[in-house]
Design goal:
about 375 residues, Aspartate Aminotransferase, domain 1, about 15% strand, globular, binds pyridoxal-5'-phosphate
Length: about 375
Amino acid sequence: MRSIPFNVPFLSGSEIKYIHEVFDKNEFAGNGDFTKKVQNILEEKLSAKKVLLTHSCTGALELAAILAGFGPGDDVIVPSYTFVTSASAILRTGANVVFCEIDPRTMLVDISDLEAKISSKTKGIVVVDYAGNSVNFDVINEICEKYNLICIEDAAQGLGSSWKNKPLGTHTRFGTISFHQTKNIHSGLGGCIIINDVKDIERAEIIWERGTNRNAFFKGLVDKYSWQEMGSSFYPSELQAAFLYAQLEKIDQNLEDRLELWRYYEKVLQPLEKKGYFKILRGSKLCQGNAHMMALHFSEMEFANNIRSHLNENGIQAVIHYVPLHSSPMGKKLGYDSDDLPITVKSSSSLIRLPLHLSMNKEDIDYIYTTINSYFAKL
Ligand SMILES: Cc1ncc(COP(=O)(O)O)c(C=O)c1O
């Protein structure tokens, strides 16, 4: 029997070479040459005003929430269908999280529910680019302007995708990206914040540098650095930055190869989709995706569970995704009940994700198709 893991972390082949260079320089701590090189590459790729590497996307979200000035008494609206830290980064500031629904066709935030939940206490929103797909950011930005809200674009899964030809992560005031090993490219753990308004750059650098103006000192703007405000240790070591530099060298090939696998999956699964067994999760026409995820959406949870078990029994590691945050034990502590967001509960339990990584090939996809097909053939 074949064995197909859900994810195998990508390796470009040059990671060790660049890590050796860090040893040669004997400078390990971070905010060094590799960090600067990687930030420059990302700024160019994303046409971004400023990119700061962080130890994780979680760290980038926390930094964004501090920069946004969220705090006690503020409400921030977050889709319940997301990773834990899209919400915990907000809670850390003392602000309150208000959960909203997703659109079951896309698993992205339901903009009408989001707008309906805006109140006089709402200070911001978090929009998640689930699966490297995106909502209509023209509408999101209009809402932000109308109600004077700050938006954090959680593009943890979005590097390499764009909406209306503008890279994900650059559509609102702050964007965040993950370089966790489950992402298309990675540094084991890692992330970055994208600062899309120049007026936030100076403060972002201070908070990022443990609350000091050390960056201004390095630029020769002050003769000594000192504590400016509450910050934290947000950036990665040079070892991680060197690893990421090696990965970024291969980002275009990585994207091309992933897209080829994704399109092949789509081609072989389409006949089953046409029979109405499931829907393949796709982005909108205005979104150029990064083939981060191959997900199938079933009409019922029971189907999703049965197919997942059948795939698992046949050596294929198909997996579920987020347990809605409002229905989690922490969500309950925040005063939520599972029934509060029924669309999110139903659509999250009827989705499965299939393996997609560059250590698999088209024969693996044929095997996955045959296994899914054999389940339906028996019905
Ligand atoms: C939408 C979303 N936000 C945030 C994160 C957190 O990223 P990290 O693991 O880099 O902290 C993830 C992780 O997968 C995610 O999917």
